[in-house]
Amino acid sequence: MSGMRIVVIGAGPTGLFTGIGLARRGHQLTVVDRDPGPQPDGGWPRRGVMQFHHAHTFRGQVFHSLEREAPDALRRWLEAGAEPVRGTIPPGREVVLAVRSRRTTFERAVREAAAAQPGLALEQGHVDEVTCDEGRANGIRTDSTHLPADLVVDASGRSGRVNQQLRAAPEAGGACGIAYVDRVHRLREGADPGPLHTPAAWTGAFDGYQVLVFLHERGFFSTLILRSADDPVLKQLRHRDAFEAACRAIPVLAAWTDPDRSQPSTEVLAGGQLLNQYRSQRGSDGGLALPGLVFVGDAVCTTTPNFGRGVVTSLTQAEELLDAVDDHDTDVDAVVERFDAWGEQHMRPWVEDHVRMDEAMGRRWHGEDVDLEQPLPSDLVLAAAQADPAIGQETFPYVAMLAGPSSLTDAERRARELYRRGWRPTPPDGPSAAGLRELVTAVTVRR
Protein backbone atom coordinates (compact mmCIF):
# COMPACT_ATOMS: atom_id res chain seq x y z
CA MET A 1 0.00 0.00 0.00
CA SER A 2 1.29 3.47 -0.89
CA GLY A 3 1.14 5.93 2.00
CA MET A 4 -0.88 9.11 1.50
CA ARG A 5 -0.60 12.48 3.15
CA ILE A 6 -3.96 12.96 4.89
CA VAL A 7 -5.29 15.95 6.81
CA VAL A 8 -8.23 15.52 9.19
CA ILE A 9 -10.30 18.56 10.17
CA GLY A 10 -11.55 18.07 13.73
CA ALA A 11 -10.01 16.31 16.71
CA GLY A 12 -13.19 14.92 18.19
CA PRO A 13 -13.65 11.15 18.59
CA THR A 14 -14.46 10.65 14.89
CA GLY A 15 -11.47 12.57 13.58
CA LEU A 16 -9.03 11.02 16.06
CA PHE A 17 -10.35 7.47 15.57
CA THR A 18 -10.13 7.87 11.79
CA GLY A 19 -6.66 9.38 12.09
CA ILE A 20 -5.41 6.56 14.32
CA GLY A 21 -6.75 3.93 11.92
CA LEU A 22 -5.19 5.58 8.88
CA ALA A 23 -1.84 6.13 10.61
CA ARG A 24 -1.75 2.47 11.64
CA ARG A 25 -2.09 1.66 7.94
CA GLY A 26 1.06 3.62 7.07
CA HIS A 27 -0.43 6.95 5.99
CA GLN A 28 0.94 10.26 7.25
CA LEU A 29 -1.73 12.03 9.28
CA THR A 30 -2.18 15.55 10.52
CA VAL A 31 -5.27 16.21 12.66
CA VAL A 32 -6.13 19.89 13.10
CA ASP A 33 -8.49 21.39 15.66
CA ARG A 34 -8.80 24.85 17.18
CA ASP A 35 -9.15 23.28 20.62
CA PRO A 36 -5.80 23.02 22.44
CA GLY A 37 -6.76 19.93 24.41
CA PRO A 38 -6.68 19.39 28.16
CA GLN A 39 -5.13 22.16 30.23
CA PRO A 40 -2.15 21.60 32.57
CA ASP A 41 -4.48 21.65 35.58
CA GLY A 42 -6.60 18.87 34.07
CA GLY A 43 -9.49 21.08 32.99
CA TRP A 44 -10.82 20.95 29.46
CA PRO A 45 -13.48 23.53 28.52
CA ARG A 46 -13.79 22.16 24.94
CA ARG A 47 -15.49 25.38 23.84
CA GLY A 48 -17.84 25.08 20.91
CA VAL A 49 -18.46 21.35 21.49
CA MET A 50 -21.68 21.32 23.45
CA GLN A 51 -22.01 17.55 23.66
CA PHE A 52 -18.59 17.17 25.32
CA HIS A 53 -20.02 18.08 28.72
CA HIS A 54 -23.44 16.50 28.30
CA ALA A 55 -24.81 13.04 28.98
CA HIS A 56 -23.75 10.10 26.83
CA THR A 57 -24.33 6.41 26.68
CA PHE A 58 -21.79 4.24 24.90
CA ARG A 59 -23.10 1.18 23.14
CA GLY A 60 -21.01 -1.96 22.93
CA GLN A 61 -20.16 -1.24 19.30
CA VAL A 62 -17.93 1.61 20.51
CA PHE A 63 -15.91 -0.83 22.64
CA HIS A 64 -15.53 -3.25 19.74
CA SER A 65 -14.62 -0.48 17.27
CA LEU A 66 -11.77 0.65 19.53
CA GLU A 67 -10.76 -2.96 20.06
CA ARG A 68 -10.35 -3.42 16.29
CA GLU A 69 -8.89 -0.09 15.19
CA ALA A 70 -7.56 1.79 18.25
CA PRO A 71 -6.61 -0.73 20.94
CA ASP A 72 -4.39 1.77 22.77
CA ALA A 73 -7.37 4.13 23.10
CA LEU A 74 -9.43 1.27 24.51
CA ARG A 75 -6.73 0.41 27.02
CA ARG A 76 -6.48 4.03 28.17
CA TRP A 77 -10.28 4.31 28.39
CA LEU A 78 -10.50 1.25 30.61
CA GLU A 79 -7.61 2.46 32.76
CA ALA A 80 -9.47 5.76 33.22
CA GLY A 81 -12.39 3.85 34.71
CA ALA A 82 -14.69 2.99 31.80
CA GLU A 83 -16.89 0.06 32.83
CA PRO A 84 -17.87 -2.50 30.15
CA VAL A 85 -21.23 -4.19 30.61
CA ARG A 86 -21.05 -7.69 29.19
CA GLY A 87 -23.86 -9.96 28.10
CA THR A 88 -24.94 -12.41 25.45
CA ILE A 89 -26.76 -11.93 22.18
CA PRO A 90 -28.38 -14.61 20.01
CA PRO A 91 -27.26 -17.28 19.43
CA GLY A 92 -25.41 -17.08 22.75
CA ARG A 93 -22.38 -14.99 21.75
CA GLU A 94 -20.81 -12.98 24.59
CA VAL A 95 -20.22 -9.32 23.73
CA VAL A 96 -19.88 -5.96 25.43
CA LEU A 97 -23.41 -4.51 25.40
CA ALA A 98 -22.51 -1.05 26.69
CA VAL A 99 -19.75 0.91 28.38
CA ARG A 100 -20.45 3.17 31.33
CA SER A 101 -18.44 6.35 30.85
CA ARG A 102 -18.65 10.11 30.65
CA ARG A 103 -17.92 11.72 27.29
CA THR A 104 -15.03 13.61 28.89
CA THR A 105 -13.37 10.35 30.01
CA PHE A 106 -13.82 8.82 26.57
CA GLU A 107 -12.41 11.80 24.66
CA ARG A 108 -9.37 12.10 26.91
CA ALA A 109 -8.48 8.46 26.31
CA VAL A 110 -8.85 8.74 22.53
CA ARG A 111 -6.85 11.98 22.40
CA GLU A 112 -4.02 10.51 24.50
CA ALA A 113 -3.87 7.51 22.17
CA ALA A 114 -3.81 9.75 19.10
CA ALA A 115 -1.00 11.86 20.56
CA ALA A 116 1.05 8.68 21.08
CA GLN A 117 0.30 7.21 17.63
CA PRO A 118 3.33 7.08 15.30
CA GLY A 119 2.65 8.82 12.01
CA LEU A 120 -0.05 11.10 13.47
CA ALA A 121 0.51 14.76 14.34
CA LEU A 122 -1.98 16.80 16.39
CA GLU A 123 -1.96 20.49 15.53
CA GLN A 124 -3.93 23.38 16.98
CA GLY A 125 -5.28 25.88 14.50
CA HIS A 126 -8.30 27.34 12.80
CA VAL A 127 -8.95 25.88 9.37
CA ASP A 128 -9.57 28.78 7.01
CA GLU A 129 -10.20 26.78 3.85
CA VAL A 130 -9.66 23.59 1.92
CA THR A 131 -7.23 24.44 -0.85
CA CYS A 132 -7.67 23.18 -4.41
CA ASP A 133 -5.67 22.48 -7.51
CA GLU A 134 -7.58 22.00 -10.77
CA GLY A 135 -10.84 21.26 -8.97
CA ARG A 136 -9.39 18.82 -6.43
CA ALA A 137 -8.67 19.27 -2.74
CA ASN A 138 -4.93 19.39 -2.19
CA GLY A 139 -4.75 20.38 1.48
CA ILE A 140 -5.95 22.96 3.95
CA ARG A 141 -4.96 26.45 4.97
CA THR A 142 -4.85 26.95 8.71
CA ASP A 143 -3.86 30.27 10.28
CA SER A 144 -2.15 31.19 6.97
CA THR A 145 -0.14 27.94 6.87
CA HIS A 146 -0.71 25.49 4.02
CA LEU A 147 -0.82 21.78 4.87
CA PRO A 148 -0.67 19.70 1.65
CA ALA A 149 -2.69 16.49 1.44
CA ASP A 150 -3.72 13.76 -0.97
CA LEU A 151 -6.98 13.38 0.98
CA VAL A 152 -8.81 15.80 3.29
CA VAL A 153 -11.18 14.28 5.87
CA ASP A 154 -13.80 16.65 7.30
CA ALA A 155 -14.72 15.38 10.78
CA SER A 156 -15.66 18.83 12.08
CA GLY A 157 -19.18 17.81 13.08
CA ARG A 158 -22.63 18.93 12.11
CA SER A 159 -21.75 22.61 12.64
CA GLY A 160 -18.43 22.65 10.79
CA ARG A 161 -18.46 25.73 8.61
CA VAL A 162 -15.40 25.54 6.40
CA ASN A 163 -16.96 23.21 3.81
CA GLN A 164 -20.69 23.70 4.33
CA GLN A 165 -21.10 25.67 1.12
CA LEU A 166 -19.74 22.80 -0.97
CA ARG A 167 -22.58 20.38 -0.30
CA ALA A 168 -26.20 20.21 -1.33
CA ALA A 169 -28.91 20.72 1.28
CA PRO A 170 -29.44 17.85 3.73
CA GLU A 171 -31.13 14.89 2.08
CA ALA A 172 -33.10 14.06 5.24
CA GLY A 173 -34.06 15.72 8.48
CA GLY A 174 -33.44 19.03 10.18
CA ALA A 175 -34.37 20.57 13.51
CA CYS A 176 -36.67 18.12 15.28
CA GLY A 177 -38.44 20.42 17.75
CA ILE A 178 -36.92 18.78 20.84
CA ALA A 179 -34.59 20.34 23.42
CA TYR A 180 -33.17 19.01 26.66
CA VAL A 181 -31.45 19.73 29.94
CA ASP A 182 -29.26 17.38 31.93
CA ARG A 183 -27.03 17.19 34.97
CA VAL A 184 -24.26 14.89 36.13
CA HIS A 185 -24.42 13.39 39.63
CA ARG A 186 -22.25 10.91 41.48
CA LEU A 187 -23.44 8.16 43.80
CA ARG A 188 -22.26 8.49 47.36
CA GLU A 189 -19.83 5.86 48.53
CA GLY A 190 -21.67 2.60 49.16
CA ALA A 191 -24.96 3.85 47.68
CA ASP A 192 -26.97 1.58 45.41
CA PRO A 193 -28.00 2.83 41.95
CA GLY A 194 -31.57 3.87 41.38
CA PRO A 195 -33.99 1.98 39.11
CA LEU A 196 -32.76 0.87 35.67
CA HIS A 197 -34.23 -0.65 32.50
CA THR A 198 -30.86 -1.93 31.31
CA PRO A 199 -27.46 -2.13 33.04
CA ALA A 200 -26.51 1.20 31.47
CA ALA A 201 -29.66 3.33 31.15
CA TRP A 202 -33.26 4.10 32.10
CA THR A 203 -35.70 5.76 29.74
CA GLY A 204 -39.31 6.77 30.22
CA ALA A 205 -41.90 8.31 27.89
CA PHE A 206 -44.03 10.52 30.11
CA ASP A 207 -47.13 12.50 29.21
CA GLY A 208 -45.62 15.33 27.19
CA TYR A 209 -41.90 14.83 27.81
CA GLN A 210 -39.21 12.18 28.14
CA VAL A 211 -36.73 11.27 30.90
CA LEU A 212 -33.44 9.40 30.60
CA VAL A 213 -30.78 8.30 33.08
CA PHE A 214 -27.37 7.28 31.71
CA LEU A 215 -24.83 5.50 33.88
CA HIS A 216 -21.19 6.51 33.63
CA GLU A 217 -18.00 5.27 35.27
CA ARG A 218 -17.17 5.16 39.00
CA GLY A 219 -20.66 6.07 40.18
CA PHE A 220 -21.21 9.06 37.90
CA PHE A 221 -24.56 9.27 36.11
CA SER A 222 -26.58 11.81 34.12
CA THR A 223 -30.25 12.69 34.34
CA LEU A 224 -31.97 14.20 31.28
CA ILE A 225 -35.34 15.77 30.62
CA LEU A 226 -36.33 16.14 26.96
CA ARG A 227 -39.18 18.50 26.12
CA SER A 228 -40.70 20.44 23.27
CA ALA A 229 -38.32 23.14 22.05
CA ASP A 230 -41.18 25.64 21.72
CA ASP A 231 -42.31 25.31 25.36
CA PRO A 232 -41.28 28.59 27.05
CA VAL A 233 -42.18 27.41 30.54
CA LEU A 234 -40.26 24.14 30.46
CA LYS A 235 -37.33 26.04 28.99
CA GLN A 236 -36.88 27.28 32.57
CA LEU A 237 -35.73 23.79 33.56
CA ARG A 238 -32.25 25.05 32.71
CA HIS A 239 -32.28 26.82 36.05
CA ARG A 240 -31.10 24.81 39.03
CA ASP A 241 -34.12 25.35 41.31
CA ALA A 242 -36.58 24.43 38.54
CA PHE A 243 -34.61 21.35 37.51
CA GLU A 244 -34.25 20.16 41.10
CA ALA A 245 -37.97 20.67 41.70
CA ALA A 246 -38.73 18.58 38.60
CA CYS A 247 -36.37 15.84 39.82
CA ARG A 248 -38.18 15.73 43.16
CA ALA A 249 -41.55 15.46 41.40
CA ILE A 250 -40.58 12.66 38.97
CA PRO A 251 -40.25 9.49 41.07
CA VAL A 252 -37.45 7.86 39.07
CA LEU A 253 -35.36 11.06 39.19
CA ALA A 254 -36.23 11.59 42.83
CA ALA A 255 -34.79 8.15 43.57
CA TRP A 256 -31.58 8.76 41.64
CA THR A 257 -30.96 12.30 42.88
CA ASP A 258 -31.96 11.74 46.51
CA PRO A 259 -29.28 13.63 48.51
CA ASP A 260 -28.75 10.51 50.61
CA ARG A 261 -27.92 8.58 47.44
CA SER A 262 -26.00 11.05 45.25
CA GLN A 263 -24.69 14.55 44.92
CA PRO A 264 -24.41 16.83 41.87
CA SER A 265 -21.02 17.12 40.18
CA THR A 266 -22.05 19.74 37.58
CA GLU A 267 -24.54 22.54 37.27
CA VAL A 268 -27.63 22.00 35.14
CA LEU A 269 -26.55 21.91 31.48
CA ALA A 270 -28.84 23.25 28.76
CA GLY A 271 -28.55 21.19 25.61
CA GLY A 272 -30.54 23.33 23.26
CA GLN A 273 -32.62 22.22 20.28
CA LEU A 274 -31.76 18.87 18.74
CA LEU A 275 -31.20 17.85 15.15
CA ASN A 276 -31.72 14.80 12.97
CA GLN A 277 -29.85 15.19 9.71
CA TYR A 278 -28.30 13.17 6.89
CA ARG A 279 -25.97 14.78 4.35
CA SER A 280 -24.24 12.91 1.57
CA GLN A 281 -20.88 13.59 -0.07
CA ARG A 282 -22.65 15.34 -2.96
CA GLY A 283 -22.74 18.89 -4.21
CA SER A 284 -25.76 20.61 -5.70
CA ASP A 285 -24.86 19.25 -9.15
CA GLY A 286 -24.99 15.64 -7.95
CA GLY A 287 -21.26 15.08 -8.22
CA LEU A 288 -18.85 14.79 -5.31
CA ALA A 289 -18.85 18.02 -3.31
CA LEU A 290 -15.12 18.31 -3.91
CA PRO A 291 -12.92 15.50 -5.23
CA GLY A 292 -10.27 14.68 -2.67
CA LEU A 293 -12.52 15.63 0.27
CA VAL A 294 -14.63 13.25 2.36
CA PHE A 295 -17.04 14.02 5.20
CA VAL A 296 -17.42 11.61 8.12
CA GLY A 297 -19.22 11.44 11.46
CA ASP A 298 -21.83 14.02 12.50
CA ALA A 299 -21.05 15.89 9.28
CA VAL A 300 -22.90 13.01 7.59
CA CYS A 301 -25.30 11.55 10.17
CA THR A 302 -26.74 13.22 13.29
CA THR A 303 -29.51 11.78 15.47
CA THR A 304 -31.13 12.85 18.73
CA PRO A 305 -29.80 11.22 21.92
CA ASN A 306 -32.94 9.23 22.78
CA PHE A 307 -31.28 5.95 21.82
CA GLY A 308 -27.61 6.84 22.29
CA ARG A 309 -26.66 6.17 18.67
CA GLY A 310 -24.42 9.14 17.91
CA VAL A 311 -20.96 7.78 18.72
CA VAL A 312 -21.82 4.40 17.19
CA THR A 313 -22.92 5.85 13.86
CA SER A 314 -19.80 8.03 13.74
CA LEU A 315 -17.30 5.27 14.51
CA THR A 316 -19.13 2.84 12.22
CA GLN A 317 -18.71 5.38 9.43
CA ALA A 318 -15.02 5.72 10.24
CA GLU A 319 -14.56 1.95 10.07
CA GLU A 320 -16.25 1.83 6.69
CA LEU A 321 -14.03 4.65 5.45
CA LEU A 322 -10.96 2.73 6.64
CA ASP A 323 -12.19 -0.38 4.82
CA ALA A 324 -12.71 1.63 1.65
CA VAL A 325 -9.14 2.96 1.87
CA ASP A 326 -7.89 -0.60 2.40
CA ASP A 327 -9.66 -1.74 -0.77
CA HIS A 328 -8.99 1.25 -3.04
CA ASP A 329 -5.61 2.46 -1.71
CA THR A 330 -4.81 5.88 -3.21
CA ASP A 331 -7.81 5.98 -5.57
CA VAL A 332 -9.45 8.67 -3.47
CA ASP A 333 -12.49 9.17 -5.69
CA ALA A 334 -13.30 5.44 -5.52
CA VAL A 335 -12.97 5.61 -1.73
CA VAL A 336 -15.43 8.50 -1.45
CA GLU A 337 -17.91 7.06 -3.97
CA ARG A 338 -18.02 3.75 -2.13
CA PHE A 339 -18.31 5.45 1.25
CA ASP A 340 -21.15 7.65 0.02
CA ALA A 341 -23.12 4.70 -1.36
CA TRP A 342 -22.63 2.87 1.93
CA GLY A 343 -23.86 5.91 3.90
CA GLU A 344 -27.01 6.14 1.79
CA GLN A 345 -27.77 2.50 2.58
CA HIS A 346 -26.67 2.27 6.21
CA MET A 347 -26.76 5.77 7.77
CA ARG A 348 -29.65 7.54 6.12
CA PRO A 349 -32.22 5.00 7.41
CA TRP A 350 -31.26 5.75 11.04
CA VAL A 351 -31.81 9.47 10.47
CA GLU A 352 -35.15 8.90 8.75
CA ASP A 353 -36.15 6.60 11.60
CA HIS A 354 -35.42 9.35 14.15
CA VAL A 355 -37.22 11.95 12.04
CA ARG A 356 -40.40 9.85 12.08
CA MET A 357 -40.11 9.09 15.80
CA ASP A 358 -39.38 12.62 16.91
CA GLU A 359 -41.98 14.28 14.70
CA ALA A 360 -44.64 11.85 15.93
CA MET A 361 -43.54 12.26 19.55
CA GLY A 362 -43.76 16.04 19.21
CA ARG A 363 -47.33 15.75 17.91
CA ARG A 364 -48.25 13.50 20.84
CA TRP A 365 -46.67 15.98 23.24
CA HIS A 366 -49.06 18.55 21.78
CA GLY A 367 -52.07 16.34 22.45
CA GLU A 368 -52.53 14.33 19.25
CA ASP A 369 -53.30 10.62 19.38
CA VAL A 370 -51.32 7.90 17.62
CA ASP A 371 -51.73 8.29 13.84
CA LEU A 372 -52.81 4.86 12.62
CA GLU A 373 -52.97 6.07 9.02
CA GLN A 374 -49.16 6.06 8.96
CA PRO A 375 -46.66 3.32 9.86
CA LEU A 376 -45.99 3.35 13.59
CA PRO A 377 -42.80 5.14 14.61
CA SER A 378 -40.21 2.83 16.09
CA ASP A 379 -40.58 4.00 19.68
CA LEU A 380 -44.26 3.06 19.66
CA VAL A 381 -43.41 -0.36 18.23
CA LEU A 382 -40.96 -0.91 21.07
CA ALA A 383 -43.49 0.34 23.63
CA ALA A 384 -45.97 -2.31 22.49
CA ALA A 385 -43.78 -4.92 24.17
CA GLN A 386 -45.55 -3.80 27.38
CA ALA A 387 -48.61 -5.65 26.09
CA ASP A 388 -46.98 -8.30 23.89
CA PRO A 389 -43.58 -9.58 25.11
CA ALA A 390 -43.01 -11.32 21.77
CA ILE A 391 -42.58 -7.87 20.23
CA GLY A 392 -39.66 -7.28 22.58
CA GLN A 393 -37.92 -10.37 21.23
CA GLU A 394 -38.57 -9.38 17.62
CA THR A 395 -37.22 -5.87 18.12
CA PHE A 396 -33.98 -6.82 19.89
CA PRO A 397 -31.77 -6.60 16.75
CA TYR A 398 -33.04 -3.06 16.12
CA VAL A 399 -32.62 -1.98 19.74
CA ALA A 400 -29.05 -3.35 19.78
CA MET A 401 -28.31 -1.78 16.34
CA LEU A 402 -27.54 -5.22 14.96
CA ALA A 403 -30.17 -4.57 12.27
CA GLY A 404 -31.60 -1.39 10.80
CA PRO A 405 -35.08 0.12 11.11
CA SER A 406 -36.46 -2.07 8.31
CA SER A 407 -36.08 -5.06 10.64
CA LEU A 408 -39.14 -3.80 12.56
CA THR A 409 -41.60 -4.54 9.73
CA ASP A 410 -43.17 -7.66 11.27
CA ALA A 411 -43.16 -6.23 14.79
CA GLU A 412 -44.82 -3.06 13.49
CA ARG A 413 -47.72 -5.11 12.11
CA ARG A 414 -48.23 -6.85 15.47
CA ALA A 415 -48.00 -3.57 17.34
CA ARG A 416 -50.40 -1.85 14.96
CA GLU A 417 -53.14 -4.32 15.84
CA LEU A 418 -52.71 -3.52 19.52
CA TYR A 419 -53.05 0.20 18.87
CA ARG A 420 -56.05 -0.33 16.60
CA ARG A 421 -57.78 -2.13 19.48
CA GLY A 422 -57.28 0.94 21.64
CA TRP A 423 -54.20 -0.05 23.62
CA ARG A 424 -51.83 2.78 24.54
CA PRO A 425 -48.55 2.69 26.49
CA THR A 426 -48.79 3.41 30.20
CA PRO A 427 -46.45 6.26 31.13
CA PRO A 428 -44.27 5.90 34.21
CA ASP A 429 -45.32 7.47 37.48
CA GLY A 430 -44.87 11.19 37.45
CA PRO A 431 -46.48 14.48 36.50
CA SER A 432 -47.64 15.32 33.01
CA ALA A 433 -46.00 18.14 31.07
CA ALA A 434 -48.85 20.37 32.27
CA GLY A 435 -48.03 19.40 35.84
CA LEU A 436 -44.36 20.17 35.27
CA ARG A 437 -45.31 23.59 33.89
CA GLU A 438 -47.28 24.38 37.02
CA LEU A 439 -44.35 23.29 39.14
CA VAL A 440 -41.82 25.28 37.15
CA THR A 441 -44.06 28.36 37.15
CA ALA A 442 -44.39 28.20 40.94
CA VAL A 443 -40.64 27.92 41.35
CA THR A 444 -40.03 30.75 38.87
CA VAL A 445 -42.45 33.04 40.69
CA ARG A 446 -40.70 32.36 43.99
CA ARG A 447 -37.35 33.08 42.39
Description:
The structure is a single chain. This protein is α+β, with helices and mostly antiparallel strands. It folds into 2 domains: 5-171 and 275-350, FAD/NAD(P)-binding domain; 176-273, D-Amino Acid Oxidase, Chain A, domain 2 (2-Layer Sandwich), CATH 3.30.9.100. It is 35% helix and 24% strand. The chain has 14 helices and 18 strands. It has helices at 13-24, 60-69, 71-79, 103-115, 240-249, 251-257, 310-328, 332-346, 348-365, 378-383, 389-394, 396-399, 409-420, 433-446, and strands at 5-9, 28-33, 58-59, 83-89, 93-100, 120-124, 127-133, 136-142, 145-148, 151-154, 172-187, 201-205, 210-215, 220-228, 262-264, 269-278, 293-295, 301-302. Strands 11, 12, 13, 14, 15, 16 and 18 form a 7-stranded antiparallel sheet that branches. The protein has a 5-stranded parallel sheet with strand order 6-2-1-10-17, covered by helices on one side. A hairpin with a 4-residue loop joins β13 and β14. α2 (60-69) crosses α3 and α7 (310-328) packs antiparallel against α8. The longest helix is centred in the last third of the chain and has 19 residues, at 310-328.
